[in-house]
Protein backbone atom coordinates (compact mmCIF):
# COMPACT_ATOMS: atom_id res chain seq x y z
CA UNK A 1 0.00 0.00 0.00
CA UNK A 2 1.42 3.40 -0.87
CA UNK A 3 0.92 6.44 1.32
CA UNK A 4 1.04 10.16 0.49
CA UNK A 5 4.53 11.69 0.55
CA UNK A 6 5.36 13.21 3.92
CA UNK A 7 6.37 16.85 3.92
CA UNK A 8 7.60 17.62 7.44
CA UNK A 9 7.73 21.39 6.95
CA UNK A 10 4.14 21.54 5.73
CA UNK A 11 3.15 19.28 8.64
CA UNK A 12 4.50 21.84 11.14
CA UNK A 13 2.53 24.61 9.45
CA UNK A 14 -0.56 22.47 9.99
CA UNK A 15 0.21 22.13 13.69
CA UNK A 16 2.10 18.83 13.87
CA UNK A 17 5.49 18.22 15.48
CA UNK A 18 7.60 15.90 13.35
CA UNK A 19 11.02 15.01 14.77
CA UNK A 20 13.63 16.22 14.02
CA UNK A 21 12.42 19.78 13.47
CA UNK A 22 12.23 20.59 9.73
CA UNK A 23 14.39 23.46 8.56
CA UNK A 24 15.21 25.89 5.78
CA UNK A 25 17.31 29.07 5.72
CA UNK A 26 16.18 32.53 4.71
CA UNK A 27 18.22 33.57 1.64
CA UNK A 28 19.35 29.95 1.29
CA UNK A 29 19.71 30.44 -2.47
CA UNK A 30 22.36 33.08 -2.98
CA UNK A 31 25.79 34.49 -2.63
CA UNK A 32 27.31 32.20 0.02
CA UNK A 33 27.05 29.36 -2.55
CA UNK A 34 29.87 29.14 -5.13
CA UNK A 35 27.46 27.53 -7.63
CA UNK A 36 25.20 30.64 -7.33
CA UNK A 37 28.12 33.01 -7.82
CA UNK A 38 29.18 31.08 -10.93
CA UNK A 39 25.72 31.30 -12.50
CA UNK A 40 25.42 34.97 -11.61
CA UNK A 41 28.80 35.79 -13.19
CA UNK A 42 27.59 34.08 -16.37
CA UNK A 43 24.27 35.89 -16.57
CA UNK A 44 25.31 39.39 -15.60
CA UNK A 45 22.92 40.67 -12.98
CA UNK A 46 20.53 39.60 -10.24
CA UNK A 47 17.39 40.69 -12.12
CA UNK A 48 18.56 38.86 -15.25
CA UNK A 49 18.68 35.72 -13.12
CA UNK A 50 15.19 36.29 -11.69
CA UNK A 51 13.79 36.78 -15.21
CA UNK A 52 15.53 33.71 -16.63
CA UNK A 53 13.09 31.07 -15.31
CA UNK A 54 15.42 28.17 -16.06
CA UNK A 55 18.29 29.82 -14.15
CA UNK A 56 15.98 30.89 -11.31
CA UNK A 57 14.67 27.31 -11.01
CA UNK A 58 18.24 25.96 -10.93
CA UNK A 59 19.15 28.47 -8.19
CA UNK A 60 16.04 27.61 -6.15
CA UNK A 61 17.17 23.99 -6.15
CA UNK A 62 20.92 24.59 -5.60
CA UNK A 63 20.83 24.51 -1.78
CA UNK A 64 18.71 21.33 -1.81
CA UNK A 65 21.08 19.62 -4.20
CA UNK A 66 24.08 20.61 -2.11
CA UNK A 67 22.71 19.84 1.37
CA UNK A 68 20.18 17.12 0.55
CA UNK A 69 16.50 16.80 1.43
CA UNK A 70 16.45 13.98 3.99
CA UNK A 71 16.69 14.05 7.79
CA UNK A 72 20.01 15.93 7.73
CA UNK A 73 19.13 18.19 4.82
CA UNK A 74 16.76 21.07 4.10
CA UNK A 75 12.99 20.61 4.10
CA UNK A 76 11.94 23.78 2.29
CA UNK A 77 12.69 25.30 -1.10
CA UNK A 78 12.14 29.06 -1.37
CA UNK A 79 11.42 30.52 -4.76
CA UNK A 80 14.37 32.49 -6.14
CA UNK A 81 12.98 35.96 -6.80
CA UNK A 82 12.77 39.21 -4.86
CA UNK A 83 10.21 41.19 -2.89
CA UNK A 84 10.79 44.18 -5.19
CA UNK A 85 9.23 42.42 -8.19
CA UNK A 86 5.88 43.80 -6.90
CA UNK A 87 6.85 47.51 -7.17
CA UNK A 88 8.46 46.68 -10.52
CA UNK A 89 5.14 45.26 -11.80
CA UNK A 90 3.34 48.28 -10.28
CA UNK A 91 5.36 50.41 -12.69
CA UNK A 92 8.50 51.63 -10.95
CA UNK A 93 11.85 51.13 -12.65
CA UNK A 94 14.01 48.63 -10.70
CA UNK A 95 17.72 48.03 -10.79
CA UNK A 96 20.49 46.93 -8.41
CA UNK A 97 23.55 49.14 -7.89
CA UNK A 98 26.60 46.95 -7.42
CA UNK A 99 27.69 46.93 -3.81
CA UNK A 100 24.85 49.27 -2.75
CA UNK A 101 21.48 47.62 -3.24
CA UNK A 102 18.16 48.20 -4.97
CA UNK A 103 16.97 51.37 -6.68
CA UNK A 104 13.36 52.19 -7.59
CA UNK A 105 12.33 55.16 -9.72
CA UNK A 106 10.56 57.47 -9.47
CA UNK A 107 10.59 57.51 -5.63
CA UNK A 108 7.03 57.97 -4.34
CA UNK A 109 8.29 60.65 -1.94
CA UNK A 110 8.41 62.82 -5.07
CA UNK A 111 5.91 61.23 -7.40
CA UNK A 112 2.30 60.10 -7.12
CA UNK A 113 1.36 56.41 -7.05
CA UNK A 114 -1.41 57.20 -9.56
CA UNK A 115 1.21 58.19 -12.13
CA UNK A 116 2.69 54.68 -12.27
CA UNK A 117 1.76 52.49 -15.23
CA UNK A 118 1.53 48.85 -14.08
CA UNK A 119 2.83 45.98 -16.17
CA UNK A 120 1.45 42.78 -14.64
CA UNK A 121 3.21 40.66 -17.27
CA UNK A 122 6.31 41.20 -15.10
CA UNK A 123 4.91 38.49 -12.79
CA UNK A 124 4.69 35.83 -15.50
CA UNK A 125 8.35 34.65 -15.60
CA UNK A 126 8.19 34.13 -11.82
CA UNK A 127 5.21 31.80 -12.25
CA UNK A 128 7.15 29.94 -14.93
CA UNK A 129 10.01 29.50 -12.42
CA UNK A 130 7.51 28.06 -9.93
CA UNK A 131 6.20 25.56 -12.52
CA UNK A 132 9.73 24.44 -13.41
CA UNK A 133 10.77 24.02 -9.77
CA UNK A 134 7.56 22.17 -8.99
CA UNK A 135 8.26 19.65 -11.75
CA UNK A 136 11.74 18.97 -10.35
CA UNK A 137 11.08 19.09 -6.61
CA UNK A 138 11.44 15.97 -4.47
CA UNK A 139 8.17 14.90 -2.78
CA UNK A 140 9.50 15.43 0.77
CA UNK A 141 10.33 19.11 0.10
CA UNK A 142 7.86 21.92 0.81
CA UNK A 143 7.85 24.68 -1.79
CA UNK A 144 7.56 28.20 -0.36
CA UNK A 145 6.51 31.29 -2.24
CA UNK A 146 6.74 34.79 -0.79
CA UNK A 147 6.05 38.48 -1.03
CA UNK A 148 7.13 41.53 0.91
CA UNK A 149 4.55 42.97 3.28
CA UNK A 150 3.07 46.34 2.31
CA UNK A 151 4.95 48.43 4.91
CA UNK A 152 8.35 47.02 3.90
CA UNK A 153 7.58 47.40 0.18
CA UNK A 154 6.39 50.97 0.79
CA UNK A 155 9.70 51.88 2.50
CA UNK A 156 11.52 51.07 -0.75
CA UNK A 157 8.89 52.59 -3.05
CA UNK A 158 8.84 55.90 -1.16
CA UNK A 159 12.61 56.31 -0.70
CA UNK A 160 13.54 54.76 -4.05
CA UNK A 161 16.15 52.68 -2.23
CA UNK A 162 16.98 51.23 1.17
CA UNK A 163 16.94 53.96 3.79
CA UNK A 164 18.32 54.47 7.27
CA UNK A 165 15.51 53.93 9.81
CA UNK A 166 13.03 53.96 6.91
CA UNK A 167 12.72 57.69 7.60
CA UNK A 168 11.25 58.81 4.23
CA UNK A 169 8.29 56.39 4.53
CA UNK A 170 7.77 57.14 8.23
CA UNK A 171 7.78 60.88 7.52
CA UNK A 172 5.24 60.52 4.72
CA UNK A 173 3.02 58.28 6.86
CA UNK A 174 2.80 61.01 9.54
CA UNK A 175 2.68 64.01 7.21
CA UNK A 176 0.07 62.65 4.78
CA UNK A 177 -1.57 59.48 6.11
CA UNK A 178 -4.23 59.48 3.36
CA UNK A 179 -1.57 59.47 0.65
CA UNK A 180 0.41 56.80 2.48
CA UNK A 181 -2.73 54.70 2.95
CA UNK A 182 -3.31 54.85 -0.82
CA UNK A 183 0.22 53.48 -1.36
CA UNK A 184 -0.35 50.66 1.14
CA UNK A 185 -3.74 49.83 -0.42
CA UNK A 186 -2.21 49.72 -3.90
CA UNK A 187 0.51 47.35 -2.66
CA UNK A 188 -2.11 45.05 -1.08
CA UNK A 189 -3.99 44.94 -4.41
CA UNK A 190 -0.78 44.15 -6.32
CA UNK A 191 0.41 41.52 -3.83
CA UNK A 192 -2.73 39.36 -3.71
CA UNK A 193 -2.72 38.32 -7.39
CA UNK A 194 1.03 37.77 -7.17
CA UNK A 195 0.65 35.30 -4.28
CA UNK A 196 -2.36 33.65 -5.92
CA UNK A 197 -0.32 33.30 -9.12
CA UNK A 198 2.51 31.61 -7.21
CA UNK A 199 0.06 29.25 -5.51
CA UNK A 200 -1.68 28.37 -8.77
CA UNK A 201 1.74 27.65 -10.31
CA UNK A 202 2.65 25.28 -7.47
CA UNK A 203 3.91 26.79 -4.20
CA UNK A 204 2.52 25.06 -1.08
CA UNK A 205 2.90 27.81 1.53
CA UNK A 206 3.84 31.49 1.45
CA UNK A 207 5.88 33.81 3.66
CA UNK A 208 5.18 37.52 4.11
CA UNK A 209 8.48 39.37 4.75
CA UNK A 210 8.03 42.53 6.84
CA UNK A 211 11.74 43.19 7.15
CA UNK A 212 11.34 46.74 8.50
CA UNK A 213 8.43 46.16 10.89
CA UNK A 214 10.78 47.05 13.74
CA UNK A 215 10.99 50.76 12.93
CA UNK A 216 7.38 51.65 13.79
CA UNK A 217 5.76 52.96 16.98
CA UNK A 218 2.91 50.80 18.36
CA UNK A 219 0.12 52.85 16.74
CA UNK A 220 1.92 52.98 13.42
CA UNK A 221 2.64 49.24 13.67
CA UNK A 222 -1.07 48.57 14.13
CA UNK A 223 -1.99 50.62 11.07
CA UNK A 224 0.84 49.84 8.61
CA UNK A 225 1.91 46.33 9.66
CA UNK A 226 -1.00 44.54 11.30
CA UNK A 227 -3.91 45.93 9.23
CA UNK A 228 -2.49 45.33 5.73
CA UNK A 229 -1.07 41.91 6.66
CA UNK A 230 -4.48 40.95 8.06
CA UNK A 231 -6.12 42.10 4.81
CA UNK A 232 -3.75 39.93 2.79
CA UNK A 233 -4.25 36.91 5.07
CA UNK A 234 -8.05 37.17 5.02
CA UNK A 235 -8.32 37.66 1.27
CA UNK A 236 -5.69 35.08 0.36
CA UNK A 237 -7.32 32.52 2.62
CA UNK A 238 -10.72 33.20 1.02
CA UNK A 239 -9.24 32.91 -2.48
CA UNK A 240 -6.98 29.90 -1.86
CA UNK A 241 -8.05 28.05 1.31
CA UNK A 242 -5.62 25.67 2.96
CA UNK A 243 -2.36 27.36 1.90
CA UNK A 244 -0.43 28.16 5.12
CA UNK A 245 0.86 31.72 5.54
CA UNK A 246 4.00 32.48 7.56
CA UNK A 247 4.29 36.06 8.78
CA UNK A 248 7.76 37.45 9.51
CA UNK A 249 7.58 40.89 11.12
CA UNK A 250 11.29 41.40 11.74
CA UNK A 251 12.09 43.50 14.78
CA UNK A 252 8.51 43.44 16.11
CA UNK A 253 9.67 42.36 19.59
CA UNK A 254 6.81 42.33 22.09
CA UNK A 255 4.41 43.46 19.33
CA UNK A 256 4.70 39.91 17.94
CA UNK A 257 1.89 38.86 20.25
CA UNK A 258 -0.63 41.33 18.76
CA UNK A 259 0.71 40.56 15.28
CA UNK A 260 0.11 36.83 15.77
CA UNK A 261 -3.37 37.30 17.24
CA UNK A 262 -4.64 39.99 14.91
CA UNK A 263 -3.24 39.10 11.48
CA UNK A 264 -4.40 35.48 11.59
CA UNK A 265 -1.16 34.10 10.09
CA UNK A 266 -0.66 30.33 10.41
CA UNK A 267 2.88 30.70 11.77
CA UNK A 268 5.20 33.50 12.86
CA UNK A 269 8.86 33.93 12.04
CA UNK A 270 11.08 35.04 14.92
CA UNK A 271 14.18 37.14 14.30
CA UNK A 272 17.36 36.52 16.30
CA UNK A 273 16.66 39.27 18.85
CA UNK A 274 13.60 37.40 20.19
CA UNK A 275 14.22 35.09 23.17
CA UNK A 276 12.64 31.84 21.98
CA UNK A 277 11.55 31.01 25.55
CA UNK A 278 9.70 34.36 25.71
CA UNK A 279 8.05 33.55 22.38
CA UNK A 280 6.97 30.13 23.62
CA UNK A 281 5.52 31.63 26.79
CA UNK A 282 3.68 34.54 25.16
CA UNK A 283 2.53 33.52 21.68
CA UNK A 284 -0.89 31.84 21.31
CA UNK A 285 -0.78 28.19 22.41
CA UNK A 286 -0.07 25.80 19.56
CA UNK A 287 0.80 28.53 17.03
CA UNK A 288 3.72 27.25 14.92
CA UNK A 289 6.87 29.35 15.02
CA UNK A 290 9.90 29.59 12.76
CA UNK A 291 13.43 30.67 13.65
CA UNK A 292 15.65 31.98 14.99
CA UNK A 293 19.37 31.29 14.82
CA UNK A 294 21.53 34.41 14.66
CA UNK A 295 23.04 34.36 11.14
CA UNK A 296 26.33 35.46 12.73
CA UNK A 297 26.39 32.38 14.99
CA UNK A 298 26.33 30.43 11.73
CA UNK A 299 29.29 32.45 10.48
CA UNK A 300 31.14 31.75 13.75
CA UNK A 301 30.55 27.98 13.78
CA UNK A 302 32.14 25.78 16.47
CA UNK A 303 30.78 25.43 19.96
CA UNK A 304 28.98 28.79 19.85
CA UNK A 305 26.89 27.51 16.95
CA UNK A 306 26.07 24.18 18.61
CA UNK A 307 25.00 25.92 21.81
CA UNK A 308 22.85 28.46 19.98
CA UNK A 309 21.07 25.66 18.09
CA UNK A 310 20.49 23.62 21.24
CA UNK A 311 19.05 26.63 23.09
CA UNK A 312 16.52 27.24 20.32
CA UNK A 313 15.45 23.59 20.10
CA UNK A 314 15.07 23.36 23.88
CA UNK A 315 12.83 26.44 23.98
CA UNK A 316 9.98 24.72 22.14
CA UNK A 317 9.30 21.46 23.98
CA UNK A 318 5.73 21.13 22.68
CA UNK A 319 5.13 23.90 20.14
CA UNK A 320 5.31 23.15 16.40
CA UNK A 321 8.66 24.60 15.28
CA UNK A 322 10.45 25.12 11.98
CA UNK A 323 14.13 25.73 12.52
CA UNK A 324 15.45 28.71 10.51
CA UNK A 325 17.77 31.67 10.84
CA UNK A 326 16.56 34.89 12.45
CA UNK A 327 17.28 36.69 9.17
CA UNK A 328 18.98 35.99 5.83
CA UNK A 329 22.18 33.98 5.67
CA UNK A 330 25.14 36.30 5.15
CA UNK A 331 27.40 35.93 2.09
CA UNK A 332 30.59 35.02 3.99
CA UNK A 333 28.98 32.06 5.81
CA UNK A 334 31.24 29.00 5.49
CA UNK A 335 29.47 26.06 3.83
CA UNK A 336 31.02 23.78 6.47
CA UNK A 337 29.09 25.64 9.17
CA UNK A 338 25.80 25.05 7.37
CA UNK A 339 26.73 21.36 7.29
CA UNK A 340 27.57 21.47 11.00
CA UNK A 341 24.17 23.04 11.71
CA UNK A 342 22.28 20.45 9.68
CA UNK A 343 24.17 17.63 11.37
CA UNK A 344 23.31 19.01 14.80
CA UNK A 345 19.62 19.33 13.86
CA UNK A 346 19.46 15.92 12.23
CA UNK A 347 19.77 14.12 15.56
CA UNK A 348 16.24 15.05 16.53
CA UNK A 349 15.01 16.43 19.79
O1 LIG B 1 16.86 32.45 -0.84
C1 LIG B 1 15.88 33.21 -0.66
O2 LIG B 1 15.53 33.61 0.47
C2 LIG B 1 14.96 33.50 -1.83
C3 LIG B 1 15.14 34.69 -2.56
C4 LIG B 1 15.08 36.06 -1.90
C5 LIG B 1 15.93 37.12 -2.28
N1 LIG B 1 15.52 38.24 -1.65
C6 LIG B 1 17.02 36.99 -3.24
C7 LIG B 1 18.02 38.06 -3.34
C8 LIG B 1 14.19 36.57 -0.95
C9 LIG B 1 13.10 35.86 -0.15
C10 LIG B 1 14.48 37.97 -0.82
C11 LIG B 1 13.72 38.87 0.07
C12 LIG B 1 14.12 40.27 0.17
N2 LIG B 1 14.64 41.08 -0.79
C13 LIG B 1 13.92 41.05 1.32
C14 LIG B 1 13.23 40.59 2.57
C15 LIG B 1 14.04 39.70 3.41
C16 LIG B 1 15.15 40.37 4.13
O3 LIG B 1 16.30 39.92 3.91
O4 LIG B 1 14.87 41.23 4.94
C17 LIG B 1 14.39 42.35 1.04
C18 LIG B 1 14.40 43.54 1.99
C19 LIG B 1 14.83 42.37 -0.30
C20 LIG B 1 15.34 43.52 -1.09
C21 LIG B 1 16.70 43.30 -1.60
N3 LIG B 1 17.05 42.38 -2.56
C22 LIG B 1 17.88 43.97 -1.19
C23 LIG B 1 17.93 45.05 -0.11
C24 LIG B 1 18.92 43.45 -1.96
C25 LIG B 1 20.34 43.92 -2.02
C26 LIG B 1 21.11 43.61 -0.79
C27 LIG B 1 21.52 42.16 -0.78
O5 LIG B 1 21.25 41.48 0.22
O6 LIG B 1 22.17 41.76 -1.75
C28 LIG B 1 18.40 42.42 -2.77
C29 LIG B 1 19.14 41.55 -3.72
C30 LIG B 1 18.99 40.08 -3.56
N4 LIG B 1 17.82 39.43 -3.37
C31 LIG B 1 20.03 39.11 -3.67
C32 LIG B 1 19.43 37.85 -3.55
C33 LIG B 1 20.09 36.50 -3.67
C34 LIG B 1 21.49 39.40 -3.93
C35 LIG B 1 21.67 39.43 -5.40
C36 LIG B 1 23.11 39.35 -5.82
O7 LIG B 1 23.81 40.36 -5.62
O8 LIG B 1 23.49 38.32 -6.36
Automatic annotation (TrEMBL):
Q: Which GO terms describe its biological process?
A: protoporphyrinogen IX biosynthetic process from glutamate
According to its UniProt record, which reaction does this protein catalyse? uroporphyrinogen III + 4 H(+) = coproporphyrinogen III + 4 CO2
Query: Would you identify the family this protein belongs to, as annotated?
Result: Belongs to the uroporphyrinogen decarboxylase family.
Q: Function of this protein?
A: Catalyzes the decarboxylation of four acetate groups of uroporphyrinogen-III to yield coproporphyrinogen-III.
Q: Which UniProt keywords apply?
A: Cytoplasm, Decarboxylase, Lyase, Porphyrin biosynthesis
Residue span, Uroporphyrinogen decarboxylase (URO-D) domain: 144-160
Q: Which SUPFAM superfamilies match?
A: UROD/MetE-like (SSF51726)
State the organism of origin.
Answer: Sphingobium jiangsuense
Main location per the UniProt record = cytoplasm
**Which Gene3D superfamilies does its entry note?**
3.20.20.210
Give binding positions for substrate: 27-31, 82, 156, 211, 327
Mind telling me which GO cellular component terms the entry cites? cytosol
Site positions for Transition state stabilizer:
82
Protein name, UniProt field = Uroporphyrinogen decarboxylase
Q: Which domain of life is it from?
A: Bacteria
Q: In which pathway does it act?
A: Porphyrin-containing compound metabolism; protoporphyrin-IX biosynthesis; coproporphyrinogen-III from 5-aminolevulinate: step 4/4
Amino acid sequence: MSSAPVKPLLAVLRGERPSPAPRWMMRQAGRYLPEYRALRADKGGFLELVYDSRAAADITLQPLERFGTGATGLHGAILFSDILIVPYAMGQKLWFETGEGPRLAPPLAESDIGALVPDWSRYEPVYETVRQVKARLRPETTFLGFAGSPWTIATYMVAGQGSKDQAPARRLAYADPARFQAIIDAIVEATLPYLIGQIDAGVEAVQLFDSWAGSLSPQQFERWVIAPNRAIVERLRAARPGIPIIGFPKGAGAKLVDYARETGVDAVGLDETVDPRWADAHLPAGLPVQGNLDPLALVAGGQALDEAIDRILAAFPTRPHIFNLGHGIVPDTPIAHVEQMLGRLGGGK
